[in-house]
């Protein structure tokens, strides 16, 4: 049998290593396409238009805007209501204050005592005698509350009673302070309190 021939040394062929190729190593043409067929799109911020919103995005935005509008309307309504209530409270307080003042004045006026004054003249014995009111009313008061009319002196008796020609029953020659003083004929001699007039400066009723 023929012997197998051994191959010559150094003649073994070694396989060549495979080189790894990636897209980064592949050349890119002018259109931005790789030679393998892939492509990259570059966007220009100056010319690129945003995509239109989707229907879901439009609905969400409309819902948000509607909610914001409702909240703003509620806020404005609450503020207007608060201002109205404040005005009502201020008006009520002012009205209560005015009513209180009027009621106080009315009570004060009603609570003032009313005193009747009678015109008197001293008789020869120095005793007072009631004379008609016209002898005192309408005349200027002199010293010590005396009126001078027809050469005679007259003055008032306060809080007394009795008829013309008789002596006054009770009363005093001193006018009470803070009282409404009138004559039997209705003439006002003095008004107590605010706007009061002094006794002797009488006015017709």
UniProtKB/TrEMBL annotation:
Feature: compositional bias, Basic and acidic residues: 1-17, 58-69
Keyword check for Membrane: yes
Membrane-crossing segments per the record: 88-110
Polar residues composition-biased segments: 171-184
Domain of life: Bacteria
Keywords: Membrane, Transmembrane, Transmembrane helix
Region (Disordered): 1-69, 168-205
Protein name in the entry: Transmembrane protein
